């Protein structure tokens, strides 16, 4: 009888020990799982509402001639540029910013000791938007644009007896400079196309160089002043009107890219409901390697208040302005497009 009781007690003890061991294993597994989940939650990155990226371009073209029967001149062209973007988007609000800086120069053997500017651009665009609804393609917008250049530009160069070159001044820093601010609405049906309509747009045109003010549409400070005296013109011109800005960006496997921007502006104060200023920019890019890009940029401007003479410096009048630049660039992009 005693042996039977001892055996039964031993079995009960063994079962209790096994049950306790299973409970310990179960508790350990649950604790490990909980720790893993907590660790995963701890390392999960917080959502980012900012997108930052920038593209750097460096282009160089060169021509060298030795005993070339048909003639020509040795020349070299260098251009550098940066296209930086900083964008924010959270729920219904968005804020997009883009800064474009570009500068280039040309040297040609026919103009010894003269460096000519070939490209010069500074442009800042900023737009704050607020969607009309969560799934809407429309948003209320406030749009700011500034555009000017870094240094003075000349043409019609003439070399004096002392060997120095002199030319006709065409533009300079803040001469002209364009600043516009508009309130309106934007339609963004896709990430690569948008239209911003600003029925209330205020614009300032700046011209710090007195001799250029008349050519860029500045008005006399007083009607009775002599129009042939440069200092008699205002250094800025205010415009109030409406603006339409259209942007399109297309890319094919990041090999072929095309970007275009069309800006139409009408001045309510002078010739309303007629497009007083038209800017149309185009950029074509073809990647031929990881860092090598063939680029073709064009700029077309029509501004009736800007007076331009012909190539001989004669017959100043309103003209369509066109500029084209083709280059082979070393290009590098940082950030996330």
Topology:
Blueprint: H1 2-43, E1 50-63, E2 75-90, E3 93-108, E4 115-131, E5 138-148, E6 153-159, E7 165-171, E8 177-190, E9 193-206, E10 236-252, E11 256-267, E12 275-287, E13 292-302, E14 320-335
Antiparallel strand pairs: 1-2, 1-14, 2-3, 3-4, 4-5, 5-8, 6-7, 8-9, 9-10, 10-11, 11-12, 12-13, 13-14
Mean pLDDT: 85
* CATH fold title of the largest domain: Outer membrane phospholipase (ompla), Chain C
How many structural units, i.e. domains? 2
> What's the tally of helices?
1
Shape by Cα distribution: flat
CATH class of the largest domain: Mainly Beta
Second rung of CATH, namely the architecture of the largest domain: Beta Barrel
Strand order of the largest sheet: 1-2-3-4-5-8-9-10-11-12-13-14
Q: What structural category characterises the helix and strand content?
A: mainly beta
Oligomer: single chain
Number of strands: 14
Q: Give, in order, the helices and strands.
A: HEEEEEEEEEEEEEE
Largest sheet: 12 strands, antiparallel, barrel
What percentage of amino acids are in beta strands? over 45%
Calculate Rg over CA atoms: 33 Å
Regions with little confidence, pLDDT below 50 for 5+ residues: none
Cα separation of the termini? 86 Å
Report helical residue fraction: 10-25%
Task: Describe the structure concisely for a colleague.
This protein is mainly β and 337 residues long. Helices cover 12% and strands 55% of the residues. A twelve-stranded antiparallel barrel has the order 1-2-3-4-5-8-9-10-11-12-13-14. Strands 6-7 form a two-stranded antiparallel sheet.
Task: Please characterize this protein's 3D structure.
- 15% of the residues are buried.
- This protein has 337 residues and is mainly beta.
- Strands 1-2-3-4-5-8-9-10-11-12-13-14 form a twelve-stranded antiparallel barrel. The chain has a two-stranded antiparallel ribbon with strand order 6-7.
- A hairpin with a 4-residue loop joins β12 and β13.
- It contains one helix and 14 strands.
- It has one helix at residues 2-43; strands spanning 50-63, 75-90, 93-108, 115-131, 138-148, 153-159, 165-171, 177-190, 193-206, 236-252, 256-267, 275-287, 292-302, 320-335.
